[in-house]
Amino acid sequence: MQQLVELGAVTILIPGNLPIGCWPGYLTKFWSPNKEDYDPLSGCLVWYNNFAQHHNILLQQEIARLQKLYPHTNLMYGDYYGSATRFHRHPEKFGTFFFESR
Q1: Amino acid 45: pLDDT
Q2: Which of 21, 60, 72, 74 could lock onto 49 through a cystine, CB 3.0 to 4.6 A?
Q3: Nearest in space to 50 (alpha carbons), one of 34, 65, 37, 35
Q4: Family, per the entry (predicted)?
């Protein structure tokens, strides 16, 4: 971010981390027989999503720090985590995709 600002960027959208505990590869690799390891609403790995949220908190703190250093810039945080979580917790609201083999 800082390098982009120093190169002249005045508006930057910085994406946060997605809820990576919902990714099929991680759900498979870190499968657990313990129900407590999974979010009851989404089925995602709680500890991995906590890690992603922690990353996002630190990222937002860094954005705030840089915003003070560069008040002429517009540094925006993109909350991908919050947006994607809605899809995982309420898939029925967003439709279903069907893939056919041909």
Answers
A1: 96
A2: 21
A3: 37
A4: Belongs to the 'GDSL' lipolytic enzyme family.
